[in-house]
Amino acid sequence: MSETAERRRGGLLGFLRDLLIILVVAFLISFLLKTFLVRSFYIPSGSMEQTLQVNDRILVNQLVPDVVGVERGDIVVFQDPGGWLYPKAMATTPTSFEKVLQAVGLAADTTHDYVVKRVIGVGGDRVTCCDANGRIEVNGVPLNEPYIVIPEGKTKASEIDFDVTVPEGSVWVLGDNRYASKDSRYNQDQPGKGFVSESEIVGRAFLLNWPLDHFGWLGRPDATFTGVEEARAQ
C-alpha cells in the first residue's frame, strides 16, 4: 500500500473515530439533560386548547417543583395520579427506534402515563366556582382568564361548581379548554380527591418547540392571579 493510500485510510479512520466520539458525547449530554433538566412531551388531546394543540411538542423544566417552586398559572406535566386518563389502549405506541430516542431524550415522550394541565391553586388556596359573573375565584379573588376556551352559548369558566381547599404540597389543576378537559374537577371521586401531589409533577412546560408554526414560550399569566396571594394572608 502506498504512503498516500495509508494517509487516506488513516484520515478516514480518524474521521470515523471522531464522529463516533461526537455521537456518543451528544447522546450522553441529551440523556443527562432528559434525566435532570429538560424533557420533551407531546400533546395527545385538545384539553389545553388553544394554548396547546393536539400533537404539539413541549419542553418541560424538570427543576420544578423540587428546585424551583410551582406557581399558579404554570402549565405542568404530571404522572397520572390514577384514573385521570382514558384506557391505555388508546395510547400512541412508539416504535422500537422511537423508544430508544425517547430514552436518551431525543424524542418526545409518547407514553400514556402523563397529564398536562394549568395550575390554578397551590397548597393552602381556596378555589371556588363560580362568582356571579361565572369566574373562578382563588382566595375570594375572581380570575380573569384570557387563555380559556368556553363554548358558544356558555358563560361560566366551569360547567361544574366546586369549593375546595388545596392541601399543602398539592395543586389544583384545570385544562384551558374548560368544557373538554378531564381535570381536577372530574376526579374528586378518586383517591387524591382531584388534587395533584407536587411529588407527581415532572416539571413546568416552558417552550412549545414543534411544529415550528406553533413555536413560542409558554409564559405564566401572572396578571390573572394578581392579589390572590395577598388575599390568602388576610
TrEMBL record:
GO molecular function: serine-type endopeptidase activity; signal peptidase activity
InterPro entries: LexA/Signal_pep-like_sf, Pept_S26A_signal_pept_1, Pept_S26A_signal_pept_1_CS, Peptidase_S26
GO cellular component terms attached to this protein's record: plasma membrane
Keyword Zinc among UniProt keywords: no
Active-site feature positions: 47, 117
Signal peptide positions (record): none
One GO term (biological process): signal peptide processing
EC number, as in UniProt: 3.4.21.89
Protein location: Cell membrane; Membrane
Record membrane topology: Single-pass type II membrane protein
SUPFAM superfamilies: LexA/Signal peptidase
Chief site of localization: membrane
Database matches in Pfam families: Peptidase_S26
EC main group: hydrolase
Keywords of the record: Hydrolase, Membrane, Protease, Transmembrane, Transmembrane helix
Residue span(s) of domain Peptidase S26: 17-210
PANTHER family in alphabetical order: CHLOROPLAST PROCESSING PEPTIDASE, SIGNAL PEPTIDASE I
Family the entry assigns: Belongs to the peptidase S26 family.
Protein name: Signal peptidase I
Originating organism: Leucobacter komagatae
